[in-house]
Known about the structure:
The structure is a single chain. With 165 residues, this protein is mostly helical. It contains 9 helices and 2 strands. Strands 1-2 form a two-stranded antiparallel ribbon. Helix 4 (49-55) packs across helix 7 (114-135) and helix 5 packs across helix 7 (114-135). The chain is globular. The mean pLDDT is 91.
Amino acid sequence: LIGFDKAIQNIMDQHPDAPIFRSLPGAGPALAPRLLVAFGTQRDRFNSAQEVAQFYGIAPVVVQSGNSRTVHIRRRCPKFGRQTFHENAGCAFKTEPWARCYYQQQRQKHQDKHHQACRALAYKLIRIYFACWKNRTQYDSEKYLAALKLNGSPLLAELNKVPGE
């Protein structure tokens, strides 16, 4: 197994997009190559972050008929890709304060359900990752926080709260 890990790292080191995927929150030596593979090198493969989220089963499926409306997980998708984004969200909220805050908000919203909160965070992360991938730029936490501030995001207000107040 160690030989495979070393081979993956060597191939990753040679890939022109490696710095982009290594800069993503929570993307360590195991997840960065998996995220790179999920997006691929064909930048015209996906036209939007929504397409990525739908393809990998991160985007929720809404079924509405008359007065009834249900939301459920997408079942028909590449499972390993969905698992990759889900695991990355689980790592990202441990390293990024804004991601932790968003994850906590989602846990409160969904009656403390970890997997729903991770999928919601993964959905948000995919939009960020898609922009980095499409524009060939590395992730920058300060740039993202500035965008939250510019848009008046309630997430930033929650993030700036001092514990105990």
